[in-house]
Design brief:
Shape: globular
Number of strands: 17
Radius of gyration: 23 Å
Strand content: 5-15%
Largest sheet: 5 strands, mixed
Helix content: 40-55%
Length: about 525
């Protein structure tokens, strides 16, 4: 089924995107184990070769926590690459709470770095416009043939920056998705039926507060993910005006799109009534003791939820992965997570620009650009290579019931291909997903379900307003996370926020709209 979905996805992308683009091909999983032959064939076909006689060290920065079995996995990968890429991998895991700071510091300082994770919500547009990243067209043509085979061309076309490829898009879904992470065992113990609306969810929050006084009823995301805050999380599902955040401010909606009309809106000028109602509701939840009082001190809400003392939290994907479920059950075997969403999974229910939200980039300062691309390509040259870095050792850290699915064994290796190797051809779906979550996953994987955005192919160039964006980010950090999580009086704090930031936001909005107008005119 999933193989069929991938083929349909590639075909659908051709339909919805410009007919001048090359037809994408998701391809099939490669079974040939002769990676050396493939690499030689690839480089010879491109008229290029790299001297691999000298071993090089690739320094890689990705977000998250280092799994217990990671070093063993890397040692195996290095052994497999010895005759084809000949590199050692120095992989640095950066805590999510420090990610933007660490990426910026690394790029600013010129620190040795060959591969780095970045994203528009993490400041990637600014990093591109500042000139920190190497354009990838030539590298992909010479050393990235398997990357091109496993990533539909349309995905590259929709995720260019200033008309060039500055990062390999990491993703499978055609639109960002999210869900509420709910303790199923508590819901059932409270006698609450399956949650089918936000109002049902809120009833559970208050029931938890009453019956489980030592438990956190609701833990939304703090400044590390404003789109999954108490207020803005609701835009995933309750969004009649099709409001979408722009590329200017990461996960902030201060500048936003709506109704697919090609206009940039400004919350300081036009406060959306739905957004304001969600903000006011968040304030009520905080005042009523539903939202965790010290939520801003929580650097990783997923880790907190796994401890077993959170009834409802949020997540930025679909379903409950096996590692998260296993971690919770290690606290108590009777504990169980489920995810709750309120998507209208009908044809044309949502607009999409088909952009991905995670990328892996090669900095200009890297002295091993060719070898870095060769490593990223090696991962995709064979399904076994991908499985090794995505899931670890078959039979030891994961099982593969069939060619499309996986399940983790224990907790020594966790799921993080989204940070460096994720692609729509080799990705496996967790066998732990229930039927509802699988259906949602399939819906978001099929591009034909979505209305193409008027801004399909447009990327904001932040070069002219880099200073203004930096200024806004500094101001926003003082106000926005507090407002959208109900921690402070919304009107008073919004007035302060507006007084400090409205001028710089207007400057950025004007530049953004000018670029869009030029794009649409062409």
């Amino acid at each position: 089924m999933k193989r069929l979905i991938k083929k349909l996805m590639a075909a659908a992308m051709v339909t919805v995107m410009s007919t001048s683009m090359l037809t994408g091909c998701a391809g099939k999983k490669t079974e040939d184990a002769s990676t050396l032959a493939k690499t030689k064939e690839m480089t010879e076909a491109a008229g290029n070769s790299v001297d691999i006689s000298k071993e090089e060290i690739l320094k890689i920065f990705i977000p998250g926590d280092r799994p217990a079995a990671f070093d063993k996995v890397i040692a195996e990968a290095e052994a497999r690459m010895k005759d084809t890429v000949n590199v050692k991998l120095d992989v640095v895991f950066v805590p999510w709470s420090d990610l933007q700071t660490k990426v910026t510091q690394t790029l600013n300082s010129g620190e040795k770095c060959d591969i780095i994770f970045d994203a528009p919500w993490n400041g990637m547009n600014t990093n591109v416009s500042t000139g920190y990243y190497e354009p990838m067209e030539d590298l992909l043509a010479k050393y990235g043939q398997n990357i091109l085979k496993t990533t539909p061309n349309e995905m590259f076309e929709a995720n260019k920056f200033a008309g060039k490829i500055y990062g390999i898009p990491l993703g499978v879904l055609q639109k960002p998705a999210g869900a509420y992470l709910v303790r199923k065992d508590i819901r059932e113990a409270l006698g609450i039926p399956e949650i089918k609306s936000y109002q049902d969810l809120e009833k559970m929050m208050y029931a938890v507060k009453e019956k489980y006084p030592n438990m956190i009823p609701f833990l939304p995301q703090n400044a590390a993910g404003n789109d999954r805050s108490a207020a803005m999380m609701r835009l995933y599902f309750e969004n009649p005006n099709q409001i979408e955040r722009t590329e200017a401010f990461g996960t902030s909606h201060v500048l936003y799109f709506k109704n697919n009309d090609g206009k940039v809106y400004n919350l300081f000028e036009e406060m959306d009534s739905d957004i304001w109602s969600y903000i006011e509701n968040a304030r009520k939840l905080y005042n009523d003791g539903i939202i965790y009082r010290d939520m801003l001190a929580v650097t990783d809400i997923a880790t907190e939820a796994k401890k077993g003392n959170v009834a409802i939290s949020v997540k930025g994907d679909i379903g409950v992965d096996a590692a998260t479920q296993t971690a919770l059950k290690s606290v108590n075997a009777n504990y169980e997570f489920e995810t709750v969403d309120f998507y209208s999974t009908g044809l044309g229910a949502y607009t999409s620009d088909f952009k991905q939200w995670n990328f892996v980039c090669i900095p200009k300062v890297s002295k091993n650009k060719e070898r870095a691309m060769m490593f990223l390509d090696w991962v995709r040259a064979d399904q076994a290579n991908y499985d090794l870095l995505a899931y670890g050792f078959k039979g030891e850290t994961f099982d593969a019931p069939d060619e499309d699915s996986y399940s983790f064994i224990g907790t020594d290796y966790t799921w993080f291909p989204y940070a460096w190797i994720w692609n729509p051809t080799q990705d496996r779906v967790s066998s732990d997903l229930n039927e509802k979550d699988k259906a949602t996953y399939q819906y978001f994987s099929d591009a034909s379900n979505f209305i193409p955005s008027k801004l399909l192919g447009f990327t904001f160039n932040a070069e002219k307003v880099t200073n203004e964006i930096a200024q806004f980010n500094s101001i926003e950090a003082k106000y926005y996370p507090l407002i959208i999580n109900g921690i402070t009086d919304p009107q008073q704090e919004w007035d302060k926020f507006k007084a400090e930031a409205s001028d710089v936001v207007k400057t950025i909005q004007t530049e953004y709209q000018a670029q869009i107008d030029t794009f649409l005119a062409q």
